[in-house]
Structure of Oxidoreductase:
Amino acid sequence: MITASEVLSPTIMAEAAICQVVMLIRSDIQFAVCVRERCWIVTMLIVCSEVILARASTSPFSLFTFDHDSFIMATDNSFPVISFSSYHNEFDAFAREVFSASQNWGFFILTDHGIPQVDDMFDMSKEFFDLPMEQKATHIIDGTLTGYDGKKLTTFAASEGISFGMPAGSVLTHTNLPNWWTASKRRDIESFKSSCYGLSLAIISTFASQLGIEKTSLTKFHKQSAPGNVLKFIKYPHFDEKPDAIPRLSEHTDWGSITFVFTEKSGLEIRDPSNNWFHIPVIPGGVVVNIGDALSLWSNGALKSTMHRISWKNLDIAEDRLSIVYFTHPNNDAILSSLTESEKPDAEALPLTYEKYLKIRSVLTYGSLRELKDGGVPFEDIDPRALEQVRGLCVANSGILESHARNKAA
């Protein structure tokens, strides 16, 4: 495994090293003064330190930034960057690296992943989002999670998107897409989805050996036809003024198994192992991989479903940001109980399927789902035992989830 610092610009890393030295000098300044009376060298070091730190704060990979929640060091050299090239020839070593990254961070960057169509997806995304609104919005997202997800200013995000959430093979004939999506474009989407699905299964397959469970214990819960395997193009648009009380992307965990995030611009932040906000770098040719709630539950918490967000501080209002995101979800009938526990399950415990888990988490997040076409249940109609079961699963919840639950209970 290599680390984020090893693939960043040498200039940036040199600045990071200098800053670390300067911080040490500043902390030990009294000692230096005692050794030699207010030496002009010491004075110059102080001046230089301020210049270097000022330079660092304006760097494209800002070395030190401050957030109202916590301190962020953007070039932490322990963040895992893993090459997929060793998957076939050194599977055990690769599996250990992936497991360690997923256990400690819940996130890692995967390079050499072999998906060739990423640039084409970005080109397609840019062209689509540049279309007039009346052309983009002819088919709004439906119960199959397919269609245009319009420009939103909500308590969760300021973004727009288009989703391709139908089962594999259906993109070619699905009617809930604007006419701009020609047969050729749809074939490209299908091919990209298939590549992402194959890569996600390869990653998921590595966890079985590390958890001491059967090789197919996890992959069997992830059919390519599962309705939750969604490809989404997302645009975080620029603004003339910062919207009041609207985040770029609110703090949250992903509910499925694995998420791939392809992006050309930084901005994504995660909670690091010390629970501070960490700014994930962009590695050319790499894809950000993160663990979702389902894998955390199956592994009894060994795999970490990590809070993440995009803040205005790290993605300015004047900037656009495009992301190509692929979500791998379990089959709806998959049971979300730990696969690592040897003891018999509680006979009185409710069998929590992934479909039921999705609905409860959705209600906790957004309130009533009565308006959705998939027959979502209102908050007040949820089995209280199932509701408490989800709340007690020890998977990360964000403040927005808790506040919605409090508001509904009040």
Remarks:
- Residues 2 and 297 are 28 Å apart (CA to CA).
